[in-house]
Amino acid sequence: MASVSLRNIAKRYGDNTPVIQGIDLDIADGEFTVFVGPSGCGKSTLLRMIAGLEEISGGQLRIGGRIANNVPPAQRGLAMVFQSYALYPHMTVYENMAFGLKLGGMPAAEVRAAVERAAVTLQIGHLLNRKPKELSGGQRQRVAIGRAIVRKPQLFLFDEPLSNLDAGLRVQMRLEIGRLHKELGTTTIYVTHDQVEAMTLGQRIVVFNGGKVEQAGTPQELYNRPANLFVAGFLGAPRMNFIPAEVIALGATHVAVLLPGGAIVEVAALPGDIERGSRVTLGVRPEHLQLREEAYNAAAVAISHVEYLGDQSIVYAALPGMQEALAVKLAQDCPVPASGAPASLFLPPERCMLFAADGAAFCRP
Questions:
Q1: Would you call the peptide bond into 219 cis, given omega within 30 degrees of 0 as the criterion?
Q2: Tens digits of per-residue pLDDT, 270-284?
Q3: pTM for this model (two decimals)
Q4: Which residues have CB under 8 Å from 102's CB, separation 6+?
Q5: How far apart are CA 145 and CA 79, in angstroms?
């Protein structure tokens, strides 16, 4: 196992176009870290720089305490699993998993022992004599992971490994990858654009945007205390509701804001740099909104659309003065109003957040 340290890491292409902009990050020995963000944010480029497949334009990379900027990929002690399975079609599963070890000159008996151990761990022992064309997508991905495991790397790098699988297989493989990390304890960096994979797999999540790190922390920290509007809107499905508001009063632990349509609500926030009269954005997650009659901290809305999902319903409520409807997540046993019906929307003060004009979150008590 190995720690990974990045100091002011940068990537520029020929015309000096910055792709990665001075990233500082520490990944602890044995940690499972997920890089997440939209397409083109730089997460896969950074992973390839760690792997040695992309040149580092600036900064310092350390793997296991050793400077690795100019170390060849084969000498970095890592193994990478790609979105593409990249299996040799003319070889059996056993031959695919053993190929790298044989090239390295490992004795045949040790190769067989290593492959069989990995096959047992991945539950593919019965597939060793099959060719890739005889396997399902999930089985092929297991073989690709097994090929990495047999090398006993210090560091695992996963680059969107589940993107080619259907929804059911993705869930199954997420469980498998999580189990493997607990069993092997190898330092792992996992790249995905899927927030569900990030939240369920990562011990720590790093959110990227435009070649920069927006926030790094545990899934709970990022979900409950996002640093800015981007992180708040990226994590969560449906995403956090954002409502433009105006600050009209400041208290010791609460701030009163005026919403479109005239409703006044209180938000649990430490005033700090908040000024009366300033324009802010109120953020609240769909599962925290409640459709109920309430004299305090409520706004009149109209139900515009309802999505029934079996275990829950997503109700979309129109707030006067806003084009985008607010999403309200209701549990299965909650009564669901009819489309077009008027309703009262309660905003719990402790569940609401305020964001400044530049997108930064104001502190909460």
A1: no
A2: 877 889 999 999 999
A3: 0.90
A4: 108, 111
A5: 9
